[in-house]
Design goal:
Blueprint (H helix, E strand, L loop, with lengths): L2 H25 L6 H31 L3 H26 L8 H22 L2
Helix pairs in contact: 1-2, 2-3, 3-4
Keywords: Membrane, Transmembrane, Transmembrane helix
Organism: Undibacterium terreum
Family: Belongs to the UPF0382 family.
C-alpha cells in the first residue's frame, strides 16, 4: 500500500471511531448494559489508536523506505477489522462466541507494531 492509500484508510477509520464513540455515548447508553457499553468503548479506543498508528506508518514510509511498512499497514487494518469489528458485533448482539475472533485482531496489531519496529531497526544499519 502507498502512503496516500494508508492515509485515506486511517482517516476513514478515525471517522468511524469518532462516530461509533458518539453513537455509543448517546445512542446506545440506554440500550446496552454497562458491560456491553464498556466492550463498545474498548472497540472504539483500539480502532482510534490503531488508525493513528496507520497515520504514523504512512508518515514514516518515505523516511524508512521499507516494504515492510506496507505489510504493517495491512496487518494493522486487519487488526482493526477483527478486533474492533468483533467487539462492536459482540456489544450489539450479545453473542459471546464473537469474542473468540478478537484475539486474532490483537495478533494483527502485535504483528503490525513488530514489523514497524523491525523496519526502523533495519533502516538504522
Amino acid at each position: 500500500m502507498n502512503e496516500r492509500t494508508i492515509i485515506i484508510i486511517a482517516a476513514v477509520n478515525m471517522f468511524i471511531a469518532v462516530g461509533a464513540g458518539a453513537f455509543g455515548a448517546h445512542g446506545l447508553k440506554q440500550v446496552l448494559s454497562a458491560e456491553m457499553l464498556a466492550i463498545w468503548q474498548t472497540a472504539v479506543s483500539y480502532q482510534a489508536m490503531h488508525a493513528l498508528g496507520l497515520f504514523v506508518i504512512a508518515l514514516l514510509m518515505p523516511r524508512l523506505n521499507s516494504a515492510l511498512l506496507g505489510w504493517a499497514s495491512i496487518a494493522m487494518l486487519v487488526g482493526i477489522v477483527l478486533f474492533s469489528g468483533s467487539l462492536y458485533a459482540l456489544a450489539l448482539s450479545g453473542t459471546r462466541i464473537l469474542g473468540a475472533i478478537t484475539p486474532l485482531g490483537g495478533l494483527g496489531f502485535l504483528l503490525a507494531w513488530a514489523m514497524l519496529a523491525w523496519a526502523a531497526y533495519q533502516s538504522a544499519r
